[in-house]
Description:
This protein is an alpha+beta fold. Helices cover 42% and strands 14% of the residues. The chain contains four helices and three strands. The protein has a three-stranded antiparallel beta sheet with strand order 1-2-3, covered by helices on one side. It is flat and about 75 Å long. The termini are far apart.
Amino acid sequence: xxxxxxxxxxxxxxxxxxxxxxxxxxxxxxxxxxxxxxxxxxxxxxxxxxxxxxxxxxxxxxxxxxxxxxxxxxxxxxxxxxxxxxxxxxxxxxxxxxxxxxxxxxxxxxxxxxxxxxxxxxxxxxxxxxxxxx
Length: 134
C-alpha cells in the first residue's frame, strides 16, 4: 500500500483555467489542477509495482510515461489540488492491489430453483402481454 503524501516529492502540479460553471471566477482564476507523476522515475515504488501501474493505468499516461490526474471539481485551486492528490493515491493503490483468485464453485440446488422460478415468472408476465388467440 502506498501511503498518502509519501510521493509528494515526485509529483508536479500545474494549474489552468477550468471550464464549466463558476461565472467570472472561471474566466479569471486558474483553478483546474493537473497532477503529473513519473512512474518509472519513482524511487519509492518497486519494479513490480511500476509494471502493474503501467499495465493497469496506461490509458491515463502520456507518451513520456507520466501518470496524469486532472481535477476541476471545486472553485478553489487548493481543494482541487487535494482532490487530485487523493485520486492519485487511490488509483495507485487500486493498481498495485493483488486480486484474490476466484475459487470455482457449483451453483446450489436452491439457486438453480430460484433462477428457474424467476424465468417462469418473467415468461408468464410476457405471455400476458400478448394478444389473445381467437
